[in-house]
Every structure is written in structure tokens, then in C-alpha cells.
Amino acid sequence: MKKITIIDYGTSNLKSINAAFNYLGYSTLITNDKKKILDSDLLVLPGVGSFPVVMQYLTKHCLDIPIKEHIKKNKPFLGICLGMQVLFEYSYEFKKTNGLSVLKGEVNNLMDMNSSKNILIPNTGWTALKRNNLFNQKNLITISKNMNFFFTHSFFVKPKNKRIISSYISFGKEQICSSVQYKNIFGMQFHPEKSGNKGLNLLEKFCKL
Q: What is the CATH class of 4-207?
């Protein structure tokens, strides 16, 4: 049985993520213990909260170290919403804050986009994913018509390497990154655990990696 670990950093959607894996028949461990995190086969970093608070917690408790070690060992890692954003170099949420720098790029405010005028922020609700034609890996997400997932966010990632973007969504007149995939790293701005059967299917595919 694969060891699936969900990182507990004090403020996240732990119960809903855990319930989704349990529904699929997988047992998970919710922990902030560094040794148990290192011992996991699949690692999940969920996300609800603010970038500076989460990064302060991760570094204070030295959880950034086992996260990076897990990724270096080429074991599957899933970052959800804020859990994806902290993988990047820095964010401008409240103040410029350094991230884990596992991936190159930054996290910006939706309010700063030209098309954000007259658009409700946070961006909350069901939104269709669009294919990134530059992405050339085997995609965890099978993008098709009516491929809608549930979003709730005020910030978005801007990867330096556009080829790691596995999907976009439309925001006003612009396209923003909605998921990334690079080798064993999978990041989703949307919440698969709140996206019905399509979201559960994604989590199932992740568990079978």
C-alpha cells in the first residue's frame, strides 16, 4: 500500500482533501512530522490561507527541507491552490515573500491584471480548463470540452517556463495558468477535492503514479 501523506501546516483544507482520498479507498496520513513526510510515497500540500503565513510555518518547522527532498527523490508531489503557489520563487501577497523556489516564477495578484476591472475577485466558481499547446509531457489532466473545475483564489502563478503549464483558464480577456506539471511535480490552482467526479478522477490518477 502506498504511503500518501498530507502535510499539516495549521491552516488548510485538510478534511476535504483527506475525505476525497478516503472516498477513493486510499488511507492517508496527515502530519507535520519531518521523518514521516520523508518516508511517504506520495506527498500532498493542500492550500487555504496566505502565502506569507504558510511559508513562515514551513520554514519555522523546517518542513521545506523534507518537501524538497521528496521532490529530489523523484517521488510524486501534488500542490493544491496555495500549495502550488509556494512551489515558486516568490509571491506579492501582502508583501514580497520568498517561496520554496522548486519552480521558477512568481505569484501575482489578480487585481493587478488589466482585465480585472469589473470582474469579481476572488475568482470563485466553476471554470473550464484550456490546453496549453506548448506543454509536451503526458498530461495528468485529460482536457476536453466542459472540463470544469472549482476555483477560489485571488492570486495566480506566472511560471518562467511556459512549457510546464499544463492548462490555462480565461480570466477576463487574458489567460492565466491553472495547473503545472514538471517531471514528478503536479500543481493545481483549482480544488480537485471540491470538483466532483472529474476532480476525484484526477486524484485517482495521481495515486496510481
A: alpha beta
Contact 194, 14 (CB under 8 A): no
Q: Single out the catalytic residue among 93, 106, 177, 191.
A: 191
- Residue in the block written with cell 512551489: 87
- Structural domain spans, the chain: 4-207
Q: C-alpha distances in angstroms, 150 versus 35, 36, 190, 194, 197?
A: 33, 30, 6, 6, 12
204 is an active site residue: no
pLDDT, tens digit, 9 for 90 and up, residues 101-135: 999 999 999 988 766 567 788 999 999 999 999 99
61 flagged as catalytic: no
pLDDT digits (tens, 9 = 90+) for 26-37: 999 999 999 999
Is there a catalytic annotation at residue 81?
Answer: yes
> Which entry of 93, 106, 177, 193 is annotated as an active-site residue?
193
Please tell me which residue in 70, 81, 106, 177 is annotated as part of the active site. 81
Confirm whether pTM is higher than 0.85.
Answer: yes
